Amino acid sequence: MSASHFEQFLTDGTNDVHYNLRLADGQSISIKAASCAATVDVYLPDEIGTPDGDSWQLEDHWEAWLTDGDDPVDGRYFYEVARADVRKLIEEHGGEHADQSAPTTDRFDQAVANGTGTGRRPMRRIRLADGTVIAIKADAGDGYVDVYLPEGIDVPDSDAWELEERELQLTRMNGEPLPGRLFYEVPAAHVRALIWKRGGEHTDQANFS
Prior knowledge:
Layout: H1 4-12, E1 19-22, E2 28-32, E3 39-45, E4 59-60, H2 63-66, E5 75-82, H3 83-92, H4 106-114, E6 124-127, E7 133-138, E8 144-149, E9 164-165, E10 181-187, H5 188-197
Antiparallel strand pairs: 1-2, 2-3, 3-5, 4-5, 6-7, 7-8, 8-10, 9-10
């Protein structure tokens, strides 16, 4: 399990800005470090629980609210976390991901911004990098989406996913039952995090146009 990018952050510093670090399980954390400092500042998304240890006591409860911009920032911000404890966190998630490039969410972001339209089948399908296909319905600029997740995609442990449709049975184009689960009014940031965790969007979306 490698932590080479993290070690480089520790050696060179991050020039007083945050750098994303993608973990092997698809999660991303953010690091701000001064060169050769004993501690670093760390942003953890909601999907990563707070590790045990005294290093994680200095939490800034206001930082995310002050810097959220147009999209809510879902996560927690910690100051002065010991380097060894951050290394341990990275190892617990399998080390660093081999590909540190940011996963893409272009098709999803376009659907959230412009809406998915109306009609008999208004949901837009999105193939993810791992080959699974989700579907979303969004009104332009609303910030919330309805999401269909196929079997095999676990629902994150978050209140954002609590509005589940339990009575409507979705069907395929030929009328066969469609296995999976449908969720209403999920914040776009939470769906985007799920897409990122699975490697982003697949490069081939042509047959879903």
